[in-house]
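Support reply, case 0932

Customer input (verbatim):
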Amino acid sequence: SILQKTLDQGGNLVIPAFAVGRTQEILYFMRKIKEEDLITGHDGFEVYVDSPLAVEATHVFNKNISECFDEEAMDLVNRGINPITFPGLKLSVTSEDSRAINFDMRPKVIISASGMCHHLKHNLWRPECTVLFAGYQAVGTLGRVLVDGADTVKLFGETIDVEAHIEQLDGISGHADREGLIEWLRAIKTKPERVFLVHGDDLVCTKF
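Our regenerated output:
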């Protein structure tokens, strides 16, 4: 629904995402959206992956299918379908490729490495665009500032008005939850004398 609304408005859907794992998961969803014709009126819309590391990681996934794909994805492979490739997928490798994306005014999806802030600079001020954060945004990060509703942000020393829609997908975080981490700790035969919690909000760490 977020993608449909953004394309209908003539905007870009920018998805900052980790290069390894998260990007490929989003590509899996995009292929499914296209295959099942879940978007109307925008046949052949393009999806750009703009991150050299994400592009390389995607190649690794494709070369090591049996190790990287789960049972559901392997079922697609066995039917001759690549789960993370589809018509309209564009892989951006060079800096020239990356800059060119922002001068193509056709509505599109940009899956960008989390640090590629130039895509935010070109899209945050446009009310027809959407920035979709895939997963948790830590306190103190630009992502968290945007999710918390900032009206302006500073990028490359320039103040940018936030006019784009800001959305968040919580359900695809790659991190284990509390139960998953405790289960992992229980499996260690020689128990550690001390455990350091270094990732997560203070309140969450205290509860954990």
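We compared this against your earlier run and they match. Two observations from our side: Strands lie at 13-17, 46-50, 89-92, 108-113, 130-134, 152-155, 158-161, 165-169. The mean pLDDT is 87. Please reopen the case if you see a mismatch on your end.
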